[in-house]
Design goal:
Layout: E1 2-8, E2 14-20, H1 59-62, E3 67-75, E4 86-90, E5 98-101, E6 107-113, E7 116-123, E8 130-131, E9 144-146, E10 151-159, E11 163-170, E12 181-190, E13 193-203, E14 209-215, E15 218-224, H2 231-251, H3 259-264, H4 268-284, E16 289-291, E17 294-295, E18 308-310, E19 315-316, E20 321-322, E21 325-327, E22 329-337, E23 347-352, E24 367-369, E25 376-382, E26 385-396, H5 398-404, E27 416-428, E28 433-442, E29 444-453, E30 465-471, E31 485-486, E32 492-498, E33 501-509, E34 518-520, E35 523-525, E36 530-531, E37 534-535, E38 537-543, E39 546-547, E40 553-555, E41 561-569, E42 574-580, E43 591-596, E44 610-612, E45 619-623, E46 628-635, H6 646-653, E47 657-661, E48 666-668, E49 671-672
Parallel strand pairs: 3-10, 11-19, 11-20, 22-28, 29-41, 42-48, 42-49
Antiparallel strand pairs: 1-2, 3-6, 4-5, 4-7, 7-8, 7-9, 11-14, 12-13, 12-15, 15-17, 15-18, 16-21, 22-25, 23-24, 23-26, 26-27, 27-28, 29-32, 30-31, 30-33, 33-40, 34-35, 36-37, 38-39, 38-41, 42-45, 43-44, 43-46, 46-47
Length: 677
C-alpha cells in the first residue's frame, strides 16, 4: 500500500512524503537497461527566465524540428482562460528560447520544435509565475520530453493569482507618511536555512497607503524604511552655507572671526552669517533624531516583527503601522596599519547586525564612509542598534599593472596581491562614538596544487584552472568577495587576502571544464566539457585529511591554509532511473531526492545532496555525485532547498532506497510505487 507521512512546516504548509512499501520490493527495482543521458535544459527547476523573451514564436525563422506543443493557460481554481499570458519554452536546442502570448481563449502553440527536454512556464501581471507540472507557485516544474515529430496538444498551466498586502503608514504624530518605501520580505528556504528574501515593494501615496501585489503564498515580514529629513540633515546644510558665507567675506577683505568689524560693513552677508551661527548653536544643543526602519506592527527590532501569512489570491488589508523617531549620533574614528602607511582607496562600512551577530534583513544597505588621507572617517545620523564596523583595502601588484598598461589594463588594475581587513562590533545607543581605532591587518592565504588523475590526457598548461572562494551562509565580514585566482602552468595556486569567515572552495576550467558541481536550486547540473583530450570534474580538495568540497572552510585571524590538493578526474558518476506509478506507467508527479547515508554530509550546499523533477517520461538523472553510499526517495511536494535540512532528511531516511555508487559508475535505479494490496 502507499503510506504517507507528513509534518507541519514553518510556513504552515503540509508536506507529504510518498513511500512505496509492499511485500515485494517494487520500489527501487533496478532495471536491466543501460544508462540514460542527462536531462538538458539547465535542470528541471526552471530554464530561461521570462524577462527579455520575444513576444511571439519565431519558429518560421528558427525552425529546427517537426514537433508541436500546444495547450491552455487558465486561472487556478476558477479554470477560466487567461488571455495574453506570456508562455515561454526553454531548452538547449532552442537558442534563446521561444515565447508566445495566449489568444482570447487562453491557448498557445509552439511549432517546428526539435526533439529534446523542455521547460514550460507562464506568467502575467497580477499573477504568480508558474512552471508546467509545478505543485504550487514557487515549486519546480516537470520537464517535457518531446520526440521528433511528436504533437502534444493538451498541456495545461494554471496561473495562481498573486496575493496582496496593503495598509497605511503614519508618522509619530499619526499623520500619513507619504512617499515612504515599504517592502514585503518572504521567508524562504535557501540551502536548508530559513531566510528573508525581498518579494515586493511599493511607496505610500498622499494618504500613507501602500499596496504590494503579485505575491506568492507564504509568510512575510513588512518593513518601511523612511527617507529621513531631520536635524542632522539641517545641520549639514547650515554648516555648508556658513562655510560659503565665510569664504565670501574673506574674499571681500572682511574677517568673519571679528563680528564687530564684520557688522560695521553693514553687509547682508554678515547679517545672514550671524543668523545661521545662532541657529547652528541651537542645533548643537539638540539631540538629532531620525526615522528608523520599522517593521509591522511598529517595532524597530526585526526579531520582534509579526509575520503576515497570505494564501494565493488573498488580499490582506489592515497591515498598518507607525513610524518611530529615534535619537541619532555620530560614529567615527581612525584607520591605521601596522606599517603606518594607509593604502589608497581604503573602504569603511557600518553594517547592521542582528542580536546573533549576523545580517538578517536584506536590502537595508550598509552605510559607507570616505576615508581621508589622514585615515579618519565618520558616519552621521546613525540610529541605535547593533553594528559591525568593517574596513578593507585591496593591494595590487604594481609591477604587473605597469607591465600591462597599454594592453587593456591600467595602473592600479593589476592582480590582487593582498587584502587588508579590520572589523569590530559596536552597540550604538544615541551617544557619540568619535574615536574608534581600526587596525588593518593582512588577510589570510589559501594555497595548494592542482592535479589530474585519469585515463584521458590532462591539459599541458594547468593555468586553465581558476580557483575561487564563495561565501557560505551569513558572514561576519561582508565587504565583498575575492576575485578568482589562476593556477600557474604547473598547477600551483594561492588565494591571498582572505578575510575571516566561512567559505566553499570552487574551481573551473577554461573552455567549460567543470569544477565543483553546479547547484541550481539544489540540482546538480551537467556542466562537463572538454579540456585537453578528456572531460574532467573536480573530485576532491584535500587538506589535512579533510575534503573541503564536503566541509566548509572556516578561516580565522592568522589562520593560513596551505598544501590544499585539488584533484580532477575523468571518471564521472551518473545515477539514472524511471519512476513508475502503481500501474507500471511513467509518472512525473514527484520530486526525486538523493542524499548521503552518512549524516555528517547533511549540510547546507552539500554536493552529495541533490533533487530533480522527472520528465513527462518519468526519467530522472543525477550527474557528478561523488562515489559513496546514498539514499534515494520520492516526495509529492517539497519547498526548494529544504532537502538540505537535516531534520527533513531524517524523515526521509526510513522511507528511502539504499544505493551505492562506485567510482565512475553509471548506476540505474528505478522507483516503482506500490498500490493498495
Amino acid at each position: 500500500m502507499i503510506v504517507r507521512a507528513s509534518r507541519r512546516l514553518g510556513l504552515g504548509l503540509s508536506l507529504a512524503l510518498t513511500l512505496a512499501l509492499a511485500a515485494t520490493p517494487v520500489i527501487g527495482q533496478q532495471g536491466p537497461r543501460g544508462g540514460q543521458g542527462p536531462a538538458p535544459g539547465g535542470g528541471p527547476f526552471g530554464g530561461r527566465g521570462m524577462g527579455g523573451a520575444p513576444i511571439r514564436d519565431t519558429a518560421a525563422q528558427t525552425a529546427v524540428g517537426s514537433a508541436t506543443v500546444s495547450g491552455l493557460v487558465v486561472v487556478e481554481g476558477a479554470g477560466t482562460p487567461v488571455r495574453r499570458a506570456r508562455v515561454s519554452l526553454a531548452a538547449p536546442e532552442l537558442r534563446g528560447g521561444r515565447s508566445v502570448l495566449t489568444d482570447d481563449q487562453g491557448r498557445f502553440t509552439f511549432n517546428a520544435l526539435p526533439a529534446g527536454r523542455f521547460t514550460l512556464t507562464a506568467s502575467k501581471s497580477g499573477f504568480v509565475d508558474i512552471a508546467y507540472g509545478a505543485k504550487r507557485a514557487g515549486r519546480p516544474g516537470t520537464p517535457i520530453q518531446i520526440t521528433e515529430g511528436q504533437t502534444l496538444d493538451d498541456l495545461r498551466l494554471a496561473l495562481p493569482r498573486g496575493a496582496v498586502i496593503t495598509g497605511i503608514v503614519v508618522d509619530e504624530h499619526g499623520e500619513p507618511a507619504a512617499g515612504t518605501p515599504v517592502r514585503a520580505l518572504r521567508f524562504v528556504m535557501q540551502t536548508g536555512e530559513r531566510r528573508l528574501q525581498q518579494a515586493g515593494q511599493d511607496q505610500t501615496d498622499d494618504r500613507g497607503m501602500y499596496r504590494i501585489f503579485q505575491l506568492q503564498p507564504g509568510e512575510y515580514i513588512v518593513n518601511a524604511a523612511p527617507r529621513n529629513l531631520n536635524v542632522g540633515d539641517a545641520r549639514q546644510a547650515l554648516a555648508s552655507e556658513i562655510a560659503s558665507l565665510m569664504q565670501q567675506l574673506q574674499a571681500s577683505g572682511v574677517n568673519p572671526a571679528l563680528p564687530q568689524a564684520a557688522a560695521g560693513q553693514g553687509s547682508a552677508a554678515t547679517a545672514r552669517l550671524a543668523q545661521l551661527q545662532r541657529q547652528m548653536a541651537t542645533y548643537e544643543q539638540e539631540q538629532p533624531a531620525a526615522y528608523a526602519p520599522v517593521y509591522f506592527p511598529g517595532t524597530t527590532d526585526p526579531d520582534a516583527a509579526v509575520a503576515i501569512t497570505v494564501n494565493a489570491g488573498e488580499e490582506r488589508a489592515g497591515v498598518d503601522f507607525r513610524l518611530q523617531q529615534v535619537p541619532t549620533t555620530r560614529v567615527g574614528g581612525l584607520i591605521v596599519t601596522t606599517t603606518g602607511n594607509l593604502p589608497p582607496a581604503t573602504q569603511v562600512a557600518l553594517v547592521p547586525r542582528s542580536a546573533s551577530g549576523t545580517s538578517t534583513v536584506p536590502g537595508l544597505g550598509n552605510m559607507m564612509a570616505r576615508v581621508g588621507g589622514d585615515g579618519r572617517f565618520s558616519f552621521e545620523n546613525v540610529t541605535p542598534g547593533a553594528y559591525s564596523l568593517q574596513a578593507r583595502a585591496t593591494l595590487r601588484d604594481a609591477t604587473t599593472a605597469a607591465a600591462t598598461t597599454g594592453r587593456g589594463r591600467g595602473p592600479g588594475q593589476g592582480p590582487v596581491s593582498q587584502v587588508l581587513w579590520a572589523v569590530t562590533d559596536l552597540s550604538v545607543n544615541g551617544q557619540p562614538l568619535p574615536d574608534i581605532v581600526l587596525t588593518l591587518q593582512p588577510g589570510m592565504t589559501i594555497s595548494g596544487q592542482v592535479r589530474f588523475e585519469g585515463t584521458a590526457t590532462p591539459p599541458a598548461d594547468l593555468s586553465v584552472v581558476r580557483i575561487a572562494l564563495a561565501s557560505r551562509g551569513a558572514q561576519a565580514f561582508e565587504m565583498g568577495g575575492l576575485p578568482p585566482v589562476t593556477a600557474d602552468a604547473n598547477g600551483r595556486f594561492a588565494i591571498p587576502g582572505v578575510s575571516p569567515g566561512r567559505y566553499t572552495l570552487t574551481a573551473t576550467m577554461a573552455g567549460g571544464g567543470r569544477g565543483a558541481p553546479g547547484r541550481g536550486g539544489g540540482i546538480l547540473l551537467d556542466q562537463m566539457a572538454a579540456a585537453g583530450s578528456g572531460s574532467w570534474q573536480l573530485a576532491s580538495a584535500m587538506s589535512n585529511g579533510r575534503d573541503l568540497l564536503d566541509d566548509p572552510i572556516d578561516i580565522g585571524p592568522n589562520q593560513n591554509l596551505q598544501n590544499v590538493i585539488l584533484t580532477y578526474t575523468d571518471k564521472v558518476q551518473e545515477l539514472t532511473g524511471t519512476i513508475q506509478d502503481t500501474s507500471g506507467g511513467p509518472t512525473s508527479d514527484f520530486t526525486i531526492i538523493v542524499f548521503p547515508a552518512e549524516t555528517r554530509y547533511w549540510q547546507p550546499q552539500a554536493r552529495r545532496i541533490a533533487a530533480t523533477r522527472p520528465g513527462t517520461d518519468g526519467r530522472f538523472t543525477f550527474r557528478g555525485l561523488p562515489p559513496g553510499e546514498y539514499r534515494l526517495t520520492a516526495v509529492t511536494d517539497v519547498e526548494p532547498g529544504e532537502w538540505y535540512d537535516p531534520a527533513f532528511l531524517e524523515q526521509l531516511a526510513h522511507a528511502s532506497i539504499p544505493i551505492a555508487i562506485g567510482n565512475g559508475e553509471k548506476k540505474v535505479q528505478d522507483i516503482r510505487l506500490a498500490g493498495s494490496q
